[in-house]
Amino acid sequence: MDKVLHCDCGFEARAADEDGLVAEVQRHAREAHGMVLSHDEALLLAFRAELNGEAPTAIRHDPTTRTDEEER
Predict the structure, then answer these.
(1) Which of 4, 37, 54, 55 is the most buried (most CB within 10 A)?
(2) How far apart are CA 52 and CA 26, in angstroms?
(3) Gap between the Cα atoms of 46 and 49, Å rounded
(4) Phi, psi at residue 63, to the nearest 5°?
(5) Which helix (H) or strand (E) holds 42?
(6) Quick one: what percent of the chain has pLDDT higher than 70?
(7) 10: which residues sit within 8 A by CB, 6+ positions away?
(8) Per-residue CA distances from 32 to 2, 4, 8, 17, 54 (Å)
């Protein structure tokens, strides 16, 4: 079964496994929102949504998350 995570902007990250979902979340956060998420940060978004039993919604701006400019 596919793993799915929805972004507030309407984007839907979908992958067959956890690693694929993490990669999609990282790519989308970087390309669409200028956010650089570590593997663990992206994985945490997926786990939080799953634990809350909600339709997974994530990739919200977090002031503790690095942006592309900060990463450089």
Answers:
(1) 37
(2) 21
(3) 5
(4) -60, -15
(5) helix 39-51
(6) 69
(7) none
(8) 22, 17, 11, 22, 23
Question: Can you tell me which residue has the tokens 């994985």?
Answer: 43
Q: For the chain, how many structural domains are there in total?
A: 1
Tokens 């939080």 sit on residue? 48
Q: What is the pLDDT of residues 34-67, one digit of tens each?
A: 999 999 999 998 887 777 655 444 455 555 555 5
Say if residues 36 and 65 touch (Cβ distance below 8 Å).
yes
Q: Which domain holds residue 37?
A: 3-71
CB 41 within 8 A of CB 65: yes
Highest-scoring range by mean pLDDT, 13-22, 23-32, 41-50 = 23-32
pTM: 0.68
